[in-house]
Amino acid sequence: MKFFVDTANLKQIEEAQDLGILDGVTTNPSLMAKEGISGVDSVLSHYKAICDLVDGDVSAEVISTDFEGMVREGENLAQIDDKIVVKVPMIKEGIKAIRYFTDNGIKTNCTLVFSAGQAIMAAKAGATYLSPFIGRVDDISWDGMELIEQISNIYAIQGFSTQILAASIRNPLHIVKAAEAGADVCTCPLSSILGLLNHPLTDIGLAKFLADHKKSSN
Ligand code: G3P
């Protein structure tokens, strides 16, 4: 399973890249706004800065909700760097835009996905990635991981090549369960990635190793 970090914060992206396990980045309009990035020029240069930090794909989301606007924005974004993946919301105009991008060799990430039906539509349009939002499904006491399992089964049966990019990750357990459920990618807050490292028995064991070593060296 690939690890993407879900942020527009350059320091967090750098820290994730330095770990040596990062495969890409996803952003969205809320994450960009959180970094205070606005205006076409600063948006484009910020995405370029992200591309220069990492080796893998970088999802950059369009703001337009009409086909012509999505295509105009997406072609602009795609010119930034070969790593750019144009992120498009799961709406009718978005499916038309994904088909256009697919036919023109531009990578896409279909986002705001909450059902298997939507996942089938995105695969039919040729989306490179599909972003089902696990955390937001859980937030309304439905089972987000069941959605990943259902989509994974359908994609395997139908031979769809769209990569399942588990998104809206809330904690390290979501990452583990997404791997079990068959996600191809998991895009996570840095805190959830780092949280995978934590276990009290590791800390206790290392402390004892070091204490025993110190005792034997005296
Ligand atoms: O960026 C897409 C998705 O990961 C956002 O999830 O629910 O944390 O805003 P959320």
Structure description:
The mean pLDDT is 98. The protein has one domain: TIM Barrel, CATH 3.20.20.70. It has an 8-stranded parallel β-barrel, surrounded by 7 helices. With 218 residues, it is of the alpha/beta class. α6 packs parallel to α8 and α8 runs parallel beside α9. The chain has 11 helices and 8 strands. The termini are far apart. The structure holds SN-glycerol-3-phosphate. The site of SN-glycerol-3-phosphate has 10 residues, from α7.
Query: Which strand order does the major sheet show?
Result: 1-2-3-4-5-6-7-8
Sheet/helix structural class: alpha/beta
Percentage beta strand: 15-25%
Oligomer kind: single chain
Biggest sheet character: 8 strands, parallel, barrel
- Which ligands does the model contain, each kind named once? SN-glycerol-3-phosphate
Rg from C-alpha positions?
A: 19 Å
**CATH top level label:** Alpha Beta
Helix content: 40-55%
Terminal CA distance: 46 Å
Roughly what is the average pLDDT, rounded to an integer? Answer: 98
Order of helices and strands: EHEHHEHEHEHEHHEHEHH
Short account of what is shown:
With 218 residues, the chain is of the alpha/beta class. Helices cover 54% and strands 17% of the residues. The chain has eleven helices and eight strands.
Features:
218 residues; alpha/beta; TIM Barrel; 8 strands; 54% helix; binds SN-glycerol-3-phosphate
Lay out the secondary structure.
Layout: E1 2-6, H1 10-19, E2 24-26, H2 29-34, H3 40-53, E3 57-61, H4 67-78, E4 84-89, H5 92-103, E5 108-113, H6 116-124, E6 129-132, H7 134-139, H8 144-158, E7 163-166, H9 172-181, E8 185-188, H10 190-195, H11 200-217
Parallel strand pairs: 1-2, 1-8, 2-3, 3-4, 4-5, 5-6, 6-7, 7-8
Helix pairs in contact: 4-5, 6-8, 8-9
Bound molecules: SN-glycerol-3-phosphate (G3P).
SN-glycerol-3-phosphate binds next to helix 7.
